[in-house]
Every structure is written in structure tokens, then in C-alpha cells.
Amino acid sequence: MSTTTVDQATSVEKPAGGRPEDERYPLGKTFLYGLQHIMTMYGGVIAPPIIVGQAAGLDGAQIGVLVSAALLVSGLATALQTLGIRFFGSQLPLVQGISFATVSTMVAVASGDGGLPAVFGAIIVAAAIGLAITPFFAQVVRFFPPVVTGTIITIIGVSLLPTAAGWMMGGDEEAADWGLIWRAVDDAELMAEATALAEALAKGPTRGYALTKKAIQAASTNSLDQQLELEGQLQREAGLTEDYKEGVSAFLQKRQPRFSGR
After folding, report:
1. Rounded mean pLDDT of 233-237?
2. Domains, the chain
3. Is the pTM of this model over 0.70?
């Protein structure tokens, strides 16, 4: 029979002798942390199929099906990881998304003669190999300390920053948006392009831009808990703006939003 203790200072239920990841936070904080996780996950899940689908020459409807499939599989994998069954699932509070580590390889395969079927075949073979070497890898994973895995994750994240910045500022579907630059233009076109970009940003949700910058600037000095708390506060603030209401209305009505910066 298991018992739990409650930390009065933070109202966090701590299982007696249990794992730290089994702690239970108050409902409000749990909801906010879960919402942050889902919102962060969503972009990571839909971006790879969009990039690979475009490289494979799919049209909008086909890419939509690919994105839906990615979301479905991500949901099933999340259920498996969090709940777990014998020999499978980490039983950790995580959302299983799609790794960006293989996007460049999938784009190269999809751009070749095999197209998307070749990508699917490669993924199935890679999954089978990964499953086969799991017992061996479980024995050697102790030789990869957090500094190694953390460095790899950081490098992947930094390599995706230009793409993320381009998408945040309304980037198009050109191949340059997937590389180490966002956009390159001739000297003669620079001022016109910069003016057009500034005008596009001015028509966007400027309050949201400001809150995003505030979160990014604070990330370098905040602890994880402080950053999550700040992001929760900023999301609540953003959800009360007129631009948020307009964005939701425009999405439901399938029209272009008209942001006011309020």
C-alpha cells in the first residue's frame, strides 16, 4: 500500500519513497505546465512532416494528412511512454514528439527517386534496428553522462534557431528557410525586403512578439522552475489580449486575422 506526503510550502504531493516524477502539483499549476508542454510539442510535431512533405512534392491536402498522421502517432506514443507496458514505455511525464535530428536525412531521401515511400521504408527499418539494439544500448548508456546528451540536444536546438526565427516572422517555403540562414537578397533589394518585413511584423500580434522576447531574454538567467513560472504568467497575459481573441476567431472563421496590438 503506497502513501504520499504533502509539502505544505508548495502543496506538492510527494510519494513516500517514490520517484520524483510521480509528484503531483496543484491542479492549476499542473494545467499550466501541461499546456506549455503541449504547445511546445505541437510545433515540433507538425514541422517535420511539413518540411518533408514539401521536399517530396506533396500538395496542401496531402501534407495535411501527413501532419494528422504525425499527431495521431505522437499521441499514441505519448500514451505508451507515460503509462507504459511490459518492456516498453519510460513511465515519465513527457510528450513523445518527432525528432528533428533526422529531418535533413528524410528531406534528402524524399527529394530522390524514392520519394515519400522510401522515407517510410527507411523509418521502418531504422525502427527495427533501434528496437533490436535497445538491450545493448541500455548497458552502455551510462557512458553518456548528461553533459554529452545535453550538448547534443543544445546543438540540435541551436541549429534550428534560424528556421524557427524565420517561421516566427512569417517565413516562406523556400529551401533557404531550412538551412543556416533565414533569407538572402541582393544588395539592391535589401531595403525593400527589410521594409516589407517590418510592415508584416507591424501587422502581426505585436503584444505576443513582446511577450515572446521577454521570455527569451529571461531564459539565460532563470532556473527551469522560474522560466516555467514566467512562461505561465506570460501565457495568461497573452490569453487576455484582444489579439488572442482575434487570432482564435480568424482561425475558426478561416480568414486572415486583423491584429490591433492590444
Report:
1. 84
2. 11-143 (no CATH), 185-262 (1.10.12.10)
3. no
